[in-house]
C-alpha cells in the first residue's frame, strides 16, 4: 500500500530521482516500481523520464517491462526524450537471443505513437515480421496497424510484407493476428488489402482448427465477409466450419453460424441448403439455453435479423421461443417479437394460444406488448384474423380500469378494422370495444377511439353524443387526437348532416385558431371543401378498405439490399441496435458492395403468397401511387409508422427492382 | 477491439489502467464510474457514453472495464473480461483490492500477454504462465501459481505450432495435491404444464463438468451410454438417449463419439465443462402438480394443490419448494397442510401475495398436498380473482438422479505410468430451471 501515498510532492520526486540514479540495482528497481504506481493512479511523473530510461542499461527483463510501460505512457508528452530510447529498442530487436525480449521491444515500439519516431521503426519491424519465432511474428504483425494509424504514408512496404507472410505463414496464431490486423487496416483505409486465393483460404480453414478460440473468431469473422468464387468453394468452406458449431465459446459458435449462413447463398444444391439449415438451427437454439441472459439477448436480437433472410430456419421450432416464467423482461420482449416473425399459416394457432396465456401476466407493460403482437399477427396473416380478434374481444370483456394494455388494445383494434372493416361483426367486437372506449387516456388510443366513432357512426348507439363529448374537450387534446377528431367529425357529419351541423360549427370555431399549423390547415381545408362540394369530401374522408390492402404485409427490419451487410455484422453492437455499422460509427467507412441479389429462404406456401402480394403491391403502386400518396398525406398525417414504413418499402422495391424471391424447394 | 482496460475500486479509484490504443480521452475511468453510479442497482454490463462503449464485470467488488469505439461483439467483450478475471484469480489466488494493488505489476504483465493492441492473444493461464516474470506477492494458499510456476528458462513454448490449441495442456507439476478427479453430471429441467397437468413444453439443459486434480494431466477416456445419439430427426422415436445438440471444451476430442460413444480428454487443471448438451424431447417429469380451484362463495376461494413425486422410491429429493402467487386483492390466506405432514412448512407472505410451500425431503412415489383458503377483499369477486392465481413455480434438487439417462460408463486414464490409481468421483444432480404449472 505504501506505493499509493499522497501526491508526489516535490520532495518525493526528488527522492525517487535519487533512488533512480542510485548505484544499487535493487533500489533502482524499487524506485521504478514506485514510478509506475504513481503513473497508474494518474499522477504526473513525466519529469523523471531521463532518469528512468537510463535504467534500461540493465539486462533484466522485469525492469525492461516496467520501463517500457512508462515509456509508452509518456512518449507523446516527451517525444524528444523518447528518441533516446530508440537505440535501445533497436538493440533489443536485433541482438537479443530471447524471443520474449524481441517481442516485448517491438510491441512497445509500436505503442509509442509518435509520428517522427515511426520511420526508425520500419526496419526493425520488417525484421520482426520475418522472425523465426512465431511469438515475435504474431506480435510484429499486430504492430502494423498501430503504425498505420499514426503514419499511413510509410506503410506500403510493410503491407507488401504482410501479404507475403499471408502466403507462407503456417502458424495458426500468427495467421489469425495477421488477418485481424490487415482487416483493421482495411477498415481504417477503406481499401482492400487482403488478397485471397485458393491456397490461402485452404490455409485459413486449417488454421481455424488449430487456433485458440479468439483466433478462430478472427478468422471466421473475416471469412464471413468473403465472397466465394463458386458453389464448390462455398461448400468446402461450410464443411470446414461445421465442427465449430459445437464449440463451447458462444462467440465462436455464433461466428460459425454467420459464415455458414453467408455461404448458403452461393450453393446451388437446394437439398444441401436445407440440410445445412437443419444443422444450424439447433446450434442457435442451444446458444439460447446455455448462456447467461445477456448473451441470450444478443443472440435473440440477431435471430430476428436472420429470420428476415431465412424464414425457413425455425419453421418447426416456434416452441423454443415461448417465454419462461422466470426470464428477465428484455428477453421476453425479444421472444415476443420473434414469435410474431415466425408465425405463419401453419402455426399461428399455437402462437396465439401461447400469447393468450401471457395476457394474464402481472406486468402491464408485458401485457401491452403481447396485445401488440396479437394485433400484428392479425394484420399480417389473414388466416389468423378471426382467432386473434376473438382473443382480443375476450380480453376486452374483462376490462374494468383504464390500464396500459387497454390503450394498446384500442390501437390494435383500430388497425384491425382498418385492414378489414367487416371484423366489426365478429363476436360483436364493436359493441364490446365501444363499451371500453372511455378508458382511453393516451393520445394514440384516444385518436383510435375517435376514428372508431367516426368510421362506425351508424352502428354505434349515440355516436353523435359521443363525438360532442370529444369536441367539447377539443382544446385540451393532443395534436394527434385533434387531427383525427377533425376527420372523424366530418365523416360523422356526412352520415348525419342534420344532427351534426351545430357540432361541426363548434369544432371549426375552436380549431381554426389553433396554434398548431397542421390542425389549422386541416380545419380550413375541410371548411372550404364542405362549403363548396361535400361530395369531394365524401370521397376523401370515407375510408374504403379496398384501397388499403397493402397493409403492413411484412415485418421487415431492414431494407432488403442492406441485409447482406447486416448479416456480415451479425453479433456486433450495430446489429444489437438493428442498425448498419456506418450508421452507428462514423469511423467506419462504407465498403462498396458489389450488389448481388438477395435471396430469401422460405417454405413453399409462404412463397406463393409473397410473390402474389408483391405483384399486387407493385401494380397498385404504379397505378395509384400518386393518388394514394395524396390520400394518405391528407387523411392519415399521423398514422402509426407501420404504414409509412410500408410505403417506403414498396417504393424502394419498385425503384431498385433488386429484390428477388428465390425459389428454394 | 478494446481501447483500454482498467480496473476500478468500489470507490472509483483506478487500480490498473492499461491503454492499448490511445484513441480515447484519459478521463474514461471517471466517465465510466459516474455513469455506473447512476444505475439504481448494478450497472448494465454494457453501456455507451458519447460513442464510447463500456463493457464491465464486477469481481470481488472491483469493476473490470473494457472500453472501445469499435463495432464489437458484445457477447465476446464480456467473455473476454470474464477470462481476464479468471486469469488474475489463477495467478493471485483471489481478486480483491488489496491483492490487486500489491500485484499491479504482475497484472500489467498478464494484461500485456492477454491483449495486444486490444486484440485478445493468449488467454489461458497455462499458456501465459511461462511468459510472466513477476511473482505474486503474498500468495494465497490456494493459488494455482503457488506451486505450479515453472522457471522462465525451462519454457519451450516457442516451437512452431505449439502456441495453438495443444498448449492448453501444458504439464503441471504439483506434489501436494491429492490425485483425484471429480465428474458431475448436472441437468436443469424446463417444464411447462397447463392446468390439467399436460406438458406443453419441456427441455433439459445438461452439462458434464470435471474438476481435475490429476498429477501430470494424463489423457482421459470417458465413455457414455451406448444408445447415445446426437441430433434429432423429425418424427423419429428411439429408445436411446437422444441429444438435440451438444458442444465441447477445447481439450475434448469428440471424433470417436459417434462410433464408440467415447470422448478423449486432455484435462487442464481445475474446473472445466467437458460438454454441454440440450434435450428437447419428451421425458417423464419428476414431479407432477395438480391444482384444483374452487369458488366457495363470492369472496372465498379454496386452492388445493397435489404434488406427486414420479420417480423411483429409492431416490430422495433433497428439497422441493412450491410458490403459489395469489390474487392481489386477497384479504387473508390460510395454507393448511395434511395432518400427518412431516418436514413440511407452508407460509403466506402478505406483502408479496405468495404462498410458499417447502418440503424438506421427498421420497420417490410419495404424494403431498396443500390446501389454501383465501378470503378476498370486498372489491373483487371470486370469479375474476381466480384468474390471478398462479402460475405455480417449483424449485427442487434431486441428487443421484438424472432424467435424460445419460450415463458415464467408465472414465479411464490412458497412460497410467507409475502413479497410483487416482480417485474418481461421479455425481448426478437434477435441478429445476423453470418448472412451472399454469392455471
Automatic annotation (TrEMBL), chain A:
GO CC, any one term: endomembrane system
Protein name (record): AP complex subunit beta
InterPro entries recorded: AP_beta (IPR026739), AP_complex_bsu_1_2_4 (IPR016342), Clathrin/coatomer_adapt-like_N (IPR002553)
Annotated signal peptide: none
PANTHER family according to UniProt: ADAPTOR COMPLEX SUBUNIT BETA FAMILY MEMBER
Family assignment from sequence similarity: Belongs to the adaptor complexes large subunit family.
UniProt feature, compositional bias: Low complexity: 643-654
Keyword Lyase: no
TrEMBL record, chain B:
Coiled-coil spans in chain: none
GO biological process, one term: protein transport
UniProt subcellular location: Endomembrane system
GO CC, alphabetical: endomembrane system
InterPro entries: Adaptor_comp_med_subunit, Clathrin_mu, MHD
Transmembrane segments annotated in the record for this chain: none
Keyword annotations: Membrane, Protein transport, Transport
Main location per the UniProt record: membrane
PROSITE patterns recorded: MHD
One of the Pfam families matching this protein, by short name: Adap_comp_sub
Domain MHD: 178-438
Superkingdom, taxonomy of origin: Eukaryota
Family per record: Belongs to the adaptor complexes medium subunit family.
Official protein name in the record: MHD domain-containing protein
Native organism: Paramecium primaurelia
Amino acid at each position: 500500500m505504501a506505493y499509493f501515498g499522497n501526491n508526489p510532492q516535490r520532495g518525493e520526486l526528488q527522492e525517487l530521482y535519487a533512488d533512480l540514479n542510485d548505484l544499487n540495482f535493487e533500489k533502482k528497481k524499487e524506485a521504478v516500481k514506485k514510478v509506475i504506481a504513481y503513473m497508474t493512479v494518474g499522477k504526473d511523473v513525466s519529469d523523471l523520464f531521463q532518469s528512468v530510461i537510463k535504467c534500461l542499461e540493465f539486462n533484466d527483463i522485469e525492469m525492461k517491462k516496467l520501463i517500457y510501460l512508462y515509456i509508452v505512457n509518456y512518449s507523446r508528452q516527451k517525444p524528444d526524450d523518447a528518441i533516446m530510447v530508440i537505440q535501445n529498442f533497436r538493440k533489443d530487436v536485433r541482438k537479443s537471443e530471447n524471443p520474449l525480449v524481441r517481442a516485448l521491444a517491438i510491441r512497445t515500439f509500436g505503442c509509442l505513437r509518435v509520428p517522427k519516431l515511426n520511420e526508425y521503426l520500419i526496419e526493425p519491424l520488417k525484421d520482426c515480421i520475418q522472425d523465426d519465432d512465431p511469438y515475435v511474428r504474431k506480435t510484429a504483425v499486430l504492430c502494423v496497424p498501430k503504425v498505420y494509424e499514426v503514419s499511413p504514408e510509410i506503410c506500403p512496404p510493410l503491407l507488401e510484407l504482410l501479404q507475403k507472410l499471408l502466403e507462407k505463414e503456417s502458424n495458426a496464431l500468427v495467421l489469425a493476428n495477421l488477418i485481424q490486423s490487415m482487416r483493421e487496416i482495411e477498415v481504417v483505409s477503406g481499401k482492400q488489402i487482403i488478397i485471397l486465393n485458393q491456397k490461402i483460404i485452404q490455409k485459413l480453414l486449417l488454421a481455424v482448427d488449430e487456433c485458440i478460440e479468439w483466433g478462430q473468431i478472427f478468422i471466421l469473422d473475416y471469412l464471413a465477409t468473403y465472397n466465394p468464387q463458386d458453389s464448390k468453394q462455398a461448400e468446402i468452406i461450410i464443411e470446414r466450419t461445421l465442427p465449430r458449431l459445437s464449440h463451447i465459446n458462444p462467440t465462436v459458435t455464433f461466428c460459425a453460424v454467420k459464415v455458414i449462413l453467408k455461404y448458403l447463398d452461393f450453393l446451388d444444391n437446394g437439398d444441401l441448403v436445407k440440410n445445412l439449415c437443419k444443422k444450424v438451427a439447433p446450434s442457435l437454439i442451444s446458444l439460447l439455453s446455455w448462456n447467461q441472459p445477456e448473451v441470450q439477448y444478443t443472440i435473440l436480437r440477431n435471430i430476428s435479423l436472420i429470420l428476415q433472410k431465412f424464414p425457413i430456419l425455425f419453421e418447426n421450432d416456434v416452441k423454443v421461443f415461448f417465454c419462461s416464467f422466470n426470464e428477465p423482461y428484455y428477453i421476453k420482449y425479444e421472444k415476443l417479437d420473434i414469435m410474431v416473425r415466425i408465425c405463419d399459416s401453419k402455426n399461428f394457432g399455437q402462437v396465439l394460444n401461447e400469447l393468450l396465456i401471457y395476457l394474464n401476466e402481472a406486468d402491464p407493460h408485458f401485457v401491452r406488448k403481447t396485445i401488440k403482437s396479437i394485433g400484428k399477427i392479425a394484420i399480417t396473416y389473414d388466416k389468423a384474423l378471426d382467432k386473434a380478434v376473438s382473443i382480443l374481444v375476450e380480453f376486452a370483456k374483462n376490462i374494468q380500469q383504464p390500464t396500459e394494455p387497454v390503450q394498446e388494445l384500442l390501437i390494435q383494434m383500430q388497425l384491425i378494422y382498418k385492414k378489414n372493416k367487416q371484423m366489426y361483426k365478429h363476436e360483436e367486437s364493436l359493441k364490446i370495444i365501444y363499451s371500453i372506449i372511455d378508458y382511453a387516456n393516451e393520445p394514440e388510443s384516444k385518436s383510435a377511439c375517435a376514428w372508431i366513432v367516426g368510421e362506425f357512426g351508424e352502428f354505434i348507439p349515440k355516436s353523435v353524443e359521443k363525438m360532442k363529448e370529444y369536441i367539447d374537450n377539443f382544446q385540451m387534446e393532443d395534436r394527434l387526437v385533434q387531427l383525427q377528431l377533425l376527420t372523424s367529425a366530418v365523416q360523422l357529419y356526412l352520415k348525419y348532416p342534420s344532427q351534426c351541423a351545430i357540432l361541426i360549427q363548434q369544432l371549426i370555431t375552436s380549431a381554426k385558431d389553433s396554434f398548431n399549423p397542421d390542425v389549422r390547415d386541416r380545419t380550413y381545408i375541410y371548411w372550404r371543401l364542405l362549403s363548396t362540394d361535400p361530395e369531394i369530401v365524401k370521397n376523401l374522408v370515407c375510408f374504403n378498405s379496398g384501397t388499403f390492402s397493402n397493409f403492413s404485409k411484412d415485418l421487415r427490419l431492414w431494407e432488403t439490399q442492406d441485409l447482406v451487410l447486416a448479416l456480415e455484422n451479425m453479433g456486433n453492437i450495430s446489429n444489437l441496435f438493428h442498425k448498419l455499422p456506418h450508421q452507428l460509427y462514423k469511423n467506419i467507412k462504407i465498403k462498396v458492395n458489389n450488389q448481388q441479389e438477395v435471396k430469401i429462404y422460405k417454405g413453399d406456401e409462404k412463397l406463393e403468397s409473397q410473390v402474389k402480394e408483391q405483384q399486387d403491391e407493385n401494380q397498385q403502386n404504379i397505378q395509384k401511387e400518386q393518388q394514394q400518396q395524396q390520400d394518405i398525406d391528407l387523411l392519415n398525417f399521423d398514422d402509426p409508422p407501420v404504414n409509412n414504413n410500408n410505403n417506403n418499402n414498396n417504393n424502394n422495391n419498385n425503384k431498385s427492382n433488386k429484390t428477388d424471391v428465390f425459389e428454394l424447394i | 477491439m478494446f481501447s483500454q482496460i482498467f480496473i476500478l475500486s468500489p470507490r472509483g479509484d483506478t487500480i490498473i489502467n492499461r491503454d492499448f490504443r490511445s484513441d480515447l480521452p484519459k478521463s474514461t475511468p471517471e466517465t465510466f464510474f459516474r455513469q455506473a453510479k447512476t444505475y439504481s442497482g448494478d450497472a448494465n454490463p454494457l453501456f455507451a457514453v458519447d460513442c464510447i462503449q463500456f463493457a464491465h464485470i464486477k469481481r470481488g467488488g472491483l469493476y473490470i472495464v473494457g472500453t472501445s469505439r469499435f463495432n464489437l461483439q458484445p457477447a465476446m467483450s464480456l467473455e473476454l473480461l470474464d477470462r481476464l478475471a479468471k486469469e488474475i484469480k489463477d495467478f493471485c489466488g483471489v481478486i480483491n483490492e488489496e491483492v490487486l494493488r500489491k500485484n499491479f505489476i504482475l497484472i500489467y504483465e498478464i494484461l500485456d500477454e492477454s491483449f495486444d493492441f486490444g486484440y485478445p492473444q493468449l488467454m489461458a493461464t497455462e499458456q501465459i504462465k511461462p511468459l510472466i516474470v513477476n511473482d505474486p506477492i503474498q500468495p494465497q494458499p490456494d493459488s494455482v501459481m503457488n506451486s505450479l510456476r515453472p522457471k522462465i528458462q525451462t519454457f519451450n513454448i516457442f516451437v512452431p505450432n505449439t502456441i495453438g490449441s495443444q498448449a492448453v495442456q501444458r504439464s503441471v507439476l504439483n506434489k501436494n495435491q491429492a490425485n483425484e478427479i471429480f465428474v458431475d453430471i448436472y441437468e436443469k429441467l424446463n417444464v411447462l404444464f397447463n392446468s390439467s397437468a399436460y406438458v406443453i413444453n419441456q427441455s433439459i439443459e445438461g452439462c458434464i463438468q470435471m474438476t481435475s486434480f490429476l498429477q501430470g494431466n494424463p489423457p482421459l477416456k470417458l465413455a457414455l451410454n451406448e444408445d447415445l445419439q446426437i441430433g434429432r430427426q423429425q418424427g423419429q422415436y428411439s429408445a436411446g438417449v437422444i441429444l438435440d445438440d451438444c458442444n465441447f471444451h477445447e481439450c475434448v476430442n469428440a471424433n470417436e463419439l459417434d462410433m464408440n460413444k467415447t470422448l478423449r480428454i486432455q484435462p487442464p487443471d481445475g474446473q472445466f465443462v467437458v460438454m454441454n448438451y440440450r434435450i428437447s424431447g419428451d421425458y417423464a417429469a419428476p414431479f407432477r402438480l395438480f391444482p384444483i380451484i374452487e369458488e366457495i362463495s363470492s369472496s372465498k376461494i379454496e386452492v388445493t394443490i397435489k404434488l406427486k413425486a414420479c420417480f423411483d422410491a429409492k431416490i430422495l429429493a433433497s428439497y422441493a419448494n412450491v410458490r403459489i402467487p395469489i390474487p392481489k386483492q386477497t384479504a387473508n390466506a390460510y395454507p393448511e397442510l395434511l395432518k400427518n405432514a412431516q418436514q413440511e412448512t407452508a407460509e403466506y407472505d402478505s406483502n408479496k401475495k405468495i404462498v410458499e410451500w417447502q418440503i424438506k425431503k421427498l421420497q420417490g412415489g410419495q404424494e403431498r398436498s396443500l390446501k389454501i383458503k383465501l378470503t378476498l377483499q370486498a372489491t373483487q369477486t371470486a370469479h375474476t380473482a381466480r384468474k390471478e392465481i398462479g402460475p405455480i413455480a417449483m424449485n427442487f434438487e434431486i441428487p443421484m438422479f438424472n432424467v435424460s439417462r445419460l450415463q458415464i460408463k467408465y472414465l479411464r486414464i490412458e497412460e497410467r505410468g507409475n502413479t497410483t490409481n487416482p480417485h474418481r468421483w461421479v455425481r448426478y444432480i437434477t435441478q429445476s430451471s423453470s418448472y412451472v404449472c399454469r392455471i
